[in-house]
Amino acid sequence: MAGCGNSLLGDDGFGPAVIKSLEAQNILADHIGLLDAGTSVRELLFDLLLSSTIPKRLILIDAVQHSNVLPGEIIRIDIDQIPENKVADYSLHQFPTINMLKELRDASVIDIEIYGVQIDNIPQMVKPGLSKPVKKAVLKLCNLIKLKVYDPEFISCNRESA
Q1: What pLDDT, in 10s, does the model give residues 116-134?
Q2: Which of 14, 51, 63, 93 is least buried, going by the fewest C-beta atoms within 10 A?
Q3: Quick check: helix, strand or coil at residue 16?
Q4: pTM for the full predicted model
């Protein structure tokens, strides 16, 4: 499980905040790895593409800017429908990351899931800290992930991207 984003840019730090919260709760099974990928998701995916050993499942967590979604709302994103726009240049949602995700999915047996939270604010200058709605979403997504870990059939989320 990898949390993507820059903790120094407001709501873009959602992914790392979820990973930090899950680590603090210390309740996940031993076979689950948690990684604050920061802004290095491309490097992580590239390493997975070249690796002879890959995980069975990869869960990516990031902040998104999606139309018709309220700040703090969590969505499950289909790889084939990832929006190509996001505020920052290092976004999970920019090329070539999308191509690497599709290649990983198509060339292997890896199950890739992406969860995003609708941002409220990503500042233009360094300003750490999540907005109130995104901060609330951290615990909510942690709870969804815990349900998913202990009940693999659970796939519910506020809404799925369309």
Answers
A1: 999 998 888 999 999 999 9
A2: 51
A3: helix
A4: 0.81
